[in-house]
Amino acid sequence: MVRIEVQRGDITTLAVDAIVNAANESLGGGGGVDGAIHRAAGPELVEASRAQAPCPTGEARITAGFALPARHVVHAVGPVWRGGGRGEAGLLASAYMTSLDLAAAAGARSIAFPAISTGVYGYPKPAAAQVAVNAIRSWLSANSAAFDRVVLVAFSSEDEAALTAAL
């Protein structure tokens, strides 16, 4: 089984086949990692992603990577945290698994994820990290040959600690 790794840094600079964008339902760009990916990919990404909007929470869409080192961008819409009793964990897990489905179907052998829903959507970082790791491990156990590399990208030391603890 492929090992999941944690790497601190900027997801837009990684040399992987696919990066995952923590997107909103409009797929039109925003703040945080979403804005950074759109800026780095160039204006073509806005057109390509908006053409696939809306994207419901828990789902994902895939586009080309344009000016990014990654060939593909998977736009995953995670849930807004509302206390944990409104299906947030299931929706977050679905966003990760759907991202893996789309990247694998596009022929990606390596993929990098940000911490989906932990920014302005307010999902607690330790809980989100555990959902992410469990969802990815579950998906990989059923699709063991799909990827050679899975990277969880931590932008901050807090993200890095939560992801490392979850692994």
Provide a concise account of the structure shown.
The chain has a single domain (4-166), classed as Leucine Aminopeptidase, subunit E, domain 1, CATH 3.40.220.10. By secondary structure, the protein is an alpha/beta fold. It has helices spanning 32-41, 43-50, 88-105, 125-142, 157-166, and strands at residues 4-8, 18-23, 60-64, 72-77, 110-113, 149-154.
Description:
It is a single chain. By secondary structure, the chain is α/β, with parallel strands linked by helices. It has a single domain, classed as Leucine Aminopeptidase, subunit E, domain 1. It is built from 5 helices and 6 strands. The chain has helices at residues 32-41, 43-50, 88-105, 125-142, 157-166; strands at 4-8, 18-23, 60-64, 72-77, 110-113, 149-154. A 6-stranded mixed beta sheet has the order 1-6-5-2-4-3, with helices on both faces. Helix 4 (125-142) links the parallel strand 5 and strand 6 (149-154). Helix 3 (88-105) packs across helix 4 and helix 4 packs across helix 5. The model has no long low-confidence stretch (mean pLDDT 97).
